[in-house]
Amino acid sequence: MRFIGAGARPDRPQIDHDRVLTVPNALTVLRFMGVPLFIWLVLAEREYGIAVVVLAVMAGSDWIDGYVARRFDQASKLGRVMDPLADRLALIAVAVTLVIAGVVHWLYLAALLVPDAVLLAMTLTFFRGHPDLPVSRVGKVRTGLLLLGTPLLVLSRLDSPFGGALFVAAWVVLGLGLVGHWIAAYNYFWAILRKGRMQAVSHPGALENDGGAA
User: Could you give the CA distance from residue 24 to residue 72 in angstroms, rounded to a whole number?
Assistant: First the structure.
């Protein structure tokens, strides 16, 4: 079974339906709900072990909802927007929590936020909303690495003889994830720019009309 794109059926093209109540969307909502629980466990309770379990469930739900959507034809237009949004919010919220808890330096958070801020500004400039671009393979690998490295880093805070090794392993994985994050952002930057220019050519009055309405 493939890890990336698992559940895809080559004999059946994937169609994004208009349905809202689907299993993948429910799993995405579950991922959203895991964020405040993680924040409470780390900042209020200092329960790092349970917090890692929450992160593991969130990461697992990310893979499972994609598999179910592809395998059982439950892909939806809502899920196409919600899924990457849930991933991004989870990664940023977890990073902010770990900065406040003193687990990571604020530079790690900045390395996550700067590319996203640039892409958000471009998206709002060109599309006034979601750019509707497919998630790249680099982006999927990046997300997987960051979701793996974060619980390893939290585990390194536990009182165990493996704390040092876990800390090193966590930063190796997170470092690779950050490199992938910037590469994915670079690719999305040009994809947004190309699509925005094509849209401006096909609808030359769209941006002026939007700007006048604002």
Answer: 10
In the chain the domains, ranked by start, together with CATH numbers, are 23-202 (1.20.120)
Q: How far apart are CA 108 and CA 99, in angstroms?
A: 8
Q: What is the pLDDT of residues 161-210, one digit of tens each?
A: 889 999 999 999 999 999 999 999 999 999 999 988 888 777 665 544 44
Kindly write down the DSSP assignment for every residue of the chain, as one continuous string. --STTTT--TTS----BS--S-HHHHHHHHHHHHHHHHHIIIIII--HHHHHHHHHHHHHHHHHHHHHHHHTT--BHHHHHHHHHHHHHHHHHHHHHHHHTTSS-HHHHHHHHHHHHHHHHHHHHHTSS----PPPHHHHHHHHHHHHHHHHHHHTTSSSTTHHHHHHHHHHHHHHHHHHHHHHHHHHHHHHHHHHHHHHHHSTTHHHHHHHH-
Helix pair 48-71, 137-155: axis angle to 10 deg:
160
pLDDT digits (tens, 9 = 90+) for 35-84: 999 999 999 999 999 999 999 998 888 888 888 888 888 888 888 888 88
Report CA 91 to chain centroid distance, whole Å.
6
* pTM given for the model: 0.81
Query: Which amino acid makes up residue 140?
Result: K
